[in-house]
């Protein structure tokens, strides 16, 4: 083992779990084993000449916390490596990552083509704030290549999608859409929040940017807000970084430390989440009160084959339609004891949501119906409790 962390070790042969734990390990002057948090807004120089050299970029070094911080950089390096990217810029939240991306890449007169059914705040950001800057927003059906093809305009500059979608777990063919984007001179960004690099690496499928809300599975215990953008050394390492250090939506060192620790257990957590989710999805499929279960790990999922090809796992978001509409869905939610009624996801604790009246409550009833989000739909973010306890909880609630 090296004496100064693992920053300089050749880790090209390491597997995913080892990288998540050991890549870019930070070790400071006290030789602490767990990475240190550097709670400082600025950094000092040994001399005026050194200050000048670091400011001029002739010598590497930290200047100010809005630009770089060692704890934040350790998180960025490790996440970049796990996604197979060259650079990563961490941000204050997932939404700050998306805002940073579009403000860096797009200008007035450009066209942004996005998938239907994006995360609610993402749709709001695009329609109510980005559109105000004279950037056109267009929509395509996530899983329909013809719809993406039809969506291009001569000024299409960026494509943005989430796969699997929330809450219905629809899947986009990332490689095919990346190819289309590049053929039209556009770039593709994929929000990889639901699967994390454990189960999907969009850059390897041809995407140009990966977006994260680290708030979800990367934290994994529902404590901190944060986000990230991963990509190549020019587009992310220089261009996105340039916006971030100027505009200031930067990640705090404490939150970066929580996420860095989160990456250490990400691989085992995601596998355990998925195992619970698979069993619960299968169990739900057998219940007479349940009309339909949406989970890419079920062979009945319309894109099960694509999911198997493109992903290394199916994630832990399971949605299902209960018979009896809103009344039955609300009753079921209220009868659970173990599941937390909250819109957050990616926690050790299983969360339960009624999308039609919460996360998707602000869109029109017609748009909801078109998107397949019915009044009887319930979304679970399956946590890490014992599977038998979760099933017992859902069984009691379903019976009532
Ligand atoms: C939560 C979420 C976001 C936004 O992230 P915040 O950290 O809450 O700002 C973006 N995309 C998806 C898919 C999310 O689930």
Rounded average pLDDT: 95
Oligomer: single chain
Number of strands: 12
Bound molecules: pyridoxal-5'-phosphate
CATH hierarchy class name of the largest domain: Alpha Beta
Number of helices: 14
> CATH fold name of the largest domain, please?
Aspartate Aminotransferase, domain 2
Give the strand order, joined by hyphens, for the main sheet. Answer: 1-7-6-5-4-2-3
Low-confidence stretches: none
Supply the helix-strand structural class. alpha/beta
CATH superfamily of the largest domain: Type I PLP-dependent aspartate aminotransferase-like (Major domain)
Shape type: globular
- Percentage of residues in helical conformation: 25-40%
Radius of gyration: 22 Å
Report the order of strands and helices. Answer: HHHEHEHEHEHEHEEHHEHEHEEHEH
For the biggest sheet, the summary is: 7 strands, mixed
CATH architecture of the largest domain, by name, is: 3-Layer(aba) Sandwich
Total tally of structural domains: 2
Distance between the termini: 57 Å
Could you walk me through the main structural features you see in this protein, from its secondary elements to its overall organization?
The protein has 400 residues and is of the alpha/beta class. It has two domains: 16-262, Type I PLP-dependent aspartate aminotransferase-like (Major domain) (Aspartate Aminotransferase, domain 2), CATH 3.40.640; 267-399, Aspartate Aminotransferase, domain 1 (Alpha-Beta Complex), CATH 3.90.1150.10. Helix content is 39%, strand content 14%. The chain has 14 helices and twelve strands. The chain has helices at residues 16-22, 48-55, 70-83, 94-105, 120-130, 145-151, 174-183, 196-199, 235-247, 253-285, 304-310, 325-335, 365-371, 387-399; strands spanning 87-91, 111-115, 136-140, 156-162, 187-191, 209-213, 227-231, 290-294, 317-322, 340-341, 351-353, 377-381. It has a seven-stranded mixed β-sheet, sandwiched between helices. A five-stranded mixed β-sheet has the order 8-9-12-11-10. Helix 5 links the parallel strand 2 (111-115) and strand 3 (136-140). The longest helix is centred in the C-terminal third of the chain and has 33 residues, at 253-285. It is globular and about 75 Å long. It starts with 15 loop residues before the first helix and ends with a helix. The site of pyridoxal-5'-phosphate has 15 residues, from helix 4 and helix 5. Pyridoxal-5'-phosphate binds next to helix 4 and helix 5.
């Amino acid at each position: 083992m090296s004496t100064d962390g693992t920053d300089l070790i050749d880790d090209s042969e390491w597997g995913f779990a080892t990288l998540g734990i050991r890549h870019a390990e930070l070790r400071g002057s006290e030789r602490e084993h767990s990475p240190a948090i550097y709670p400082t807004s600025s950094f000092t120089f040994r001399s005026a000449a050194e200050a000048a050299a670091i400011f001029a970029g002739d010598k590497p070094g930290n200047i100010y916390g809005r630009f770089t911080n060692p704890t934040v950089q350790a998180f960025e390096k490790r996440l970049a490596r796990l996604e197979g990217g060259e650079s990563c810029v961490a941000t204050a939240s997932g939404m700050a990552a998306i805002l940073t991306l579009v403000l860096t890449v797009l200008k007035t007169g450009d066209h942004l083509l996005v998938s239907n059914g994006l995360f609610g705040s993402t749709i709001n950001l695009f329609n109510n704030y980005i559109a105000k800057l004279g950037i056109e927003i267009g929509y395509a059906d996530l899983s329909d290549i013809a719809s993406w093809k039809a969506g291009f305009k001569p000024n299409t500059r960026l494509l943005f999608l989430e796969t699997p979608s929330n809450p219905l777990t629809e899947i986009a063919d990332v490689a095919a859409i990346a190819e289309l984007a590049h053929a039209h001179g556009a770039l593709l960004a994929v929000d990889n929040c639901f699967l994390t690099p454990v189960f999907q690496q969009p850059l390897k499928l041809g995407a140009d940017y990966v977006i994260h809300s680290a708030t979800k599975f990367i934290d994994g215990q529902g404590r901190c807000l944060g986000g990230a953008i991963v990509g190549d050394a020019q587009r992310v390492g220089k261009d996105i970084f340039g916006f971030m250090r100027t505009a200031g939506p930067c990640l705090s060192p404490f939150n970066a430390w929580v996420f860095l620790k989160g990456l250490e257990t990400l691989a085992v957590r995601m596998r355990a989440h998925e195992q619970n989710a698979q069993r619960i999805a299968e169990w739900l499929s057998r219940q007479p009160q349940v009309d339909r279960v949406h989970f890419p790990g079920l062979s009945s999922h319309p894109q099960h084959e694509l999911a198997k090809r493109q992903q290394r796992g199916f994630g832990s978001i399971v949605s299902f339609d209960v018979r009896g509409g809103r009344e039955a869905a609300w009753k079921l939610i209220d009868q659970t004891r173990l599941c937390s009624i909250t819109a957050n996801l990616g926690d050790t604790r299983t969360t339960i949501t009624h999308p039609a009246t919460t996360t998707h409550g602000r869109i029109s009833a017609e748009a909801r119906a078109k998107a397949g989000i019915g009044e009887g739909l319930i979304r679970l973010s399956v946590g890490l409790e014992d599977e038998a306890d979760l099933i017992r909880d859902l069984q009691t609630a379903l019976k009532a």
